[in-house]
Amino acid sequence: MLNLKSKIYAGLAILILVIVIIASASIYNLKILSADSSAIIQDNYHTIDYSFLMLARLDNINNKLIKLSQNDSNYTFQNQNLRIDIKKHLESFNALLKLEENNITESGEAELVDILAKNFDHVKENIIKAVENDSGYMTPTIVNSISASRSTIHEIYKLNMQSIIHKNDIAEQTSLNTITYMLIISSFSLIIILFYVMRFPNYIVAPIRELTDKIRAVSSKRYDQKITIRSSDEIGVLTNSFNQMAERLKEYEEQHLDQLLLEKKRIDSLVYGLNDGVILLDEKQNIILINTTAERIISLGSAEIVNKNILLFCSQSKIMQLICSIVFSDKTKFNENFESLDFFDHKSKEYYNIDTIEIKDDNKNINGVRIKGLVIILRNVTPFKERDIAKTNMLATVSHELKTPISSINLSLKLLSNTRIGDLNSEQKKLIESISQQNKKLLRVVNEILDFSQAETGRINLIIETVDPRQVVDLATSALMMLISEKEINLKLDIMDNPPLIKADLEKSVWILVNILNNAIRYSSLQGKIVLSLKTDGGFVRFSVLDYGPGISEADQEIIFRKFIKDKTGYFKGTGLGLAIAKEFVESQGGKIWVDSLIANGSQFHFILPIAQHQNFHSETTLSK
Fold this sequence. Notes:
- The protein contains 16 helices and 14 strands.
- The strands form four sheets. It has a five-stranded antiparallel beta sheet, with helices on both faces. Strands 8-10-11-13-12 form a five-stranded mixed beta sheet. It has a two-stranded antiparallel ribbon with strand order 6-14.
- The longest helix is centred in the N-terminal third of the chain and has 80 residues, at 140-219.
- With 625 residues, the protein is an alpha+beta fold.
- A hairpin with a 2-residue loop joins β10 and β11.
- It has five domains: 4-195, Four Helix Bundle (Hemerythrin (Met), subunit A) (Up-down Bundle); 221-271, no CATH class; 273-378, PAS domain (Beta-Lactamase, 2-Layer Sandwich); 381-457, Orthogonal Bundle (Helix Hairpins); 460-623, Heat Shock Protein 90, CATH 3.30.565.10.
- It is elongated.
């Protein structure tokens, strides 16, 4: 039996044979057509040429005889030349006649040549006598003989022309026959080639296609596949190997099926026994598993939603709307902007923390890691949330209560400093100054905690009005002028000309800029440089503060605006609330805050507030998160 390589060579040999047959037939028919054309040229062309030349010689002889008969003097030099020319023409005609006698090709042509030869002999004899006797050049005998010779030459010419026409007809018929034969041969060859093109590749490809389909089925864990192709070539060997592999995989699957089912039951029991709600989605967002806790939270049974797309249930409740917004959003962007996502269910009076875990395929495709599914975890965080609320309320209460004694201490310190009460010695003045500094620090911490408690509870009192951003810059820099002078900071202002007015709370906006500038001053070296710029950014005005301090790592940039995140460099020890409160104040006014920084290359904080004509606010607003 032929192997696969030999079969391919056999198919190519058939194609080559067809090409050789077509080429051979073409060459054969072209030779026949060439032979017919050659016959026309070789057999008849010379005779026609001789006929024209002989007629020309007869005309020359006739013309010179007429001139001789018309001349008066028989012994002039001109007459002598005419006689010589006549003899030359007679000899030339005789030579042409001899050539014609050797080129007889048609039937009846020999008789005509014999007649022509006899007539020419008679013409030649009479002309020579007339020339020798110098009389009777144009006698009736000579004229009739020349006329008879001319007629005979015309007959020979006519006979050869008829032969040329006849042979041309034969050549045309040969050409038509050649075209017919070539069409028949080409059609037959085309049928063979089409049959080969349609059948032979399929003969090679069909087993490979079937093998590919069976391999795909096996990859889908359908191990009962078997290829029925019978062949003794390489494909046959490959088929037998595949069938053996499929049988062994089927045996292996049957042996481990019970173990897999047991493991699946264990996993299902684990998931259903969790106190947290779990919803499992596949790569097409179809719900493939939901435990009892999740059913209770979303008020939907597994029979209603399993094997259905989660998109169908997004409008069922607020928590489902929130889950869908997480599923169909950019997870990376979501995780950057939020620590966690909490949801309060007014129906059950409970708080839930919603988290997601992506199920990724270890085998990367062209576009990167392939997502195979998504796990949605619903955690009941009601006790923790209630404690957090209680903590926030306690902080607000304690901070508010602390402000009264702190104010009293400030008043007492001012009274002690007054000389009307009495003079103080230097040690007493130092003690009062130290107490005053600590009291201011305590008051600042209390104010930050109060601001934080407002942000935590969502009760940020805003007085929104039309504000000139340059006024925000002036108030913030004025408040920190003493601190700037102490460290000899070079504060450079890059303020655009005629900036647009913004809709903002002046006090909160100044507080934000003061907080950012204060941090920049603390982290700047003595006689350092800070750049405060103001420019438009789309429908917003952007405030930017650039310092040349130690910078912030990329990891810390993601968490720096969270609550209680303190400085890790040791440059400054604070509460860790300043930037968190600034973020709340900016976002409550419809803006955004962020930082650009590199380690050892300084930091640049930005926040934007909306331009007046782009947003409409009430004159006094209380915003809730």
